[in-house]
Amino acid sequence: MAKKSKKQQSGSTPATVALAAAGVAFTFHAYEHDPSHPSYGEEAAEAMGVSPDRVFKTLVADVDGNLTVAVVPVTGRLDLKALAAAVGGKRATMADPALAERTTGYVRGGISPLGQRKKLPTVLDASASGHSTICVSAGRRGLEVELSPEDLATLTKATVAPIGRA
User: Fold this and answer.
1) Helix (H, G, I), strand (E, B) or coil at 63
2) What whole-number distance in Å separates Cα of residue 37 and Cα of residue 10?
């Protein structure tokens, strides 16, 4: 994977700036977003020619009144009970999309676990550990970054737990 400097990032976002500042190796993937595609994540996998189980979506949930980020494979769903348990909570629901956008600074379909406006507790699905690299949103629809799951967990201070389900 090539490390990209801030100047090399034509589609610079807070996520890519955070990666560059951290000195983490990553690959930048840009593709033409199709607004009519039914799934942002599956669209990304197809456009990049990457196995969908290596492409992860970033979701924002409300756990006992606290916003929490969940990073799970696009091929599955978020297990809300498992997410709540992973952060020591009792109940989780999906966050209001407008609140998620305001809090993270990103638009739905382009929310990145990196470079968020407000740092939120983050949980990365344990399946990520089975891959040398995974892809997550770089902060805009049509923009992804590929990096090691260990680097993602370190940069987001994520808890790694089994929060995804098929």
Assistant:
1) strand
2) 24
Specify the pTM. 0.90
What are the φ and ψ backbone dihedral angles of 88, each rounded to 5 degrees? 75, 20
Do the bridges between strand 159-161 and strand 56-63 make them parallel or antiparallel, or are there none, so unpaired?
unpaired
Which residue bears the tokens 């089975």? 130
Structure token digits, residue 3: 């490390």
Terminal CA-CA length for the chain: 29
In this structure, the chain runs to a length of 166
What does the pLDDT look like over 61-104, one tens digit per residue? 999 999 999 999 999 999 999 999 999 999 999 999 999 999 99
Integer Cα distance of 38 and 36 in angstroms: 6
Q: Please, are residues 135 and 145 in contact by the beta-carbon 8 Å criterion?
A: yes
Q: What is the dihedral of CA 7, 32, 115, 162, to 10 degrees?
A: -140
Instruction: Annotate 11-45 with DSSP letters as a single string.
Output: T--HHHHHHHHHT---EEEE----TT-S-HHHHHH
Q: Is 100 helix (H, G, I), strand (E, B) or coil?
A: helix
